[in-house]
Write a structure and sequence with these properties.
heterodimer, A: about 120 residues, mainly beta, 6-stranded mixed β-sheet, 4-stranded antiparallel β-sheet, B: about 110 residues, 11 strands, globular
Chain lengths: ~120, ~110
């Protein structure tokens, strides 16, 4: 069965510094996708970044990058130059990639990030 | 472009009442998902549809829950009869198929059953 583990319930980071949020996963499927979502206190779920299991390079989206280590089954999110608006809950999620069927997401328990001024 | 639209945003009702949550996915997306978020269980998938057909409903907690997708632009999640333990935030999300496309979430419905 697929499983996502986020071992950091809460993290603090100083404004303008970089922070890494940990995510490990378990799956026996060769083809899968890894996602990170941000959930601010207002409650909406915001997609941040995606990494495919066959992608050779780590994904990047602006200040977000995904440190993908396939052999270790980890997909850590790196946020560079933290901003106060980055304070939120962050969820790592995994999907199974199947032909012509939307992949359901399995979510981790989340990491609450607090950015200090 | 309009995102995923859910209604109502908040619902407070008494135990035993029927609750209907509604969702309009993003136009052109062929997969639709219903999730539930609670403090105890986190985010869990209830059911998902592909091209209006239910693919996996293994997350639906019990027979009191049902979901339909009569067309590509509308889905409902119904709870009948509702119980206090159904109190949660219910999210609808949509995506283009295959699982390598991001799911875009609605703002959620905060449901409270008294």
């Amino acid at each position: 069965a697929q499983k996502i583990t986020q071992t950091q319930p809460g993290m603090f980071v100083q404004e303008k510094e970089a922070v890494t949020l940990d995510c490990t996963y378990d799956t026996s499927d060769p083809s899968y996708g890894l996602f990170w979502y941000k959930q601010p206190s207002s409650g909406e779920m915001i997609f941040l970044i995606y990494q495919g299991s066959y992608d050779q390079q780590n994904a990047t989206e602006g200040r977000y990058s995904l440190n993908f280590q396939k052999a270790r089954k980890s997909a850590n999110l790196v946020i560079s130059a933290s901003q106060l608006g980055d304070s939120a809950m962050y969820f790592c999620a995994m999907s199974q990639i199947s032909y012509n069927q939307g992949g359901k997401l399995i979510f981790g328990q989340g990491t609450e990030l607090s950015v200090k001024p | 472009d309009a995102g995923v639209i859910q209604s109502p945003r908040h619902e407070v009702t008494e135990m035993g009442q029927e609750v209907t949550l509604r969702c309009k996915p993003i136009s052109g997306h062929n997969s639709l998902f219903w999730y539930r978020q609670t403090m105890m269980r986190g985010l869990e998938l209830l059911i998902y549809f592909n091209n209006n057909v239910p693919i996996d409903d293994s997350g639906m907690p019990e027979d009191r829950f049902s979901a339909k997708m009569p067309n590509a632009s509308f889905s409902t999640l119904k709870i009948q009869p509702s119980e206090p333990r159904d109190s949660a935030v219910y999210f609808c999300a949509s995506s283009r198929g295959r699982g390598n496309q991001p799911q875009h979430f609605g703002d959620g419905t905060r449901l409270s059953i008294l």
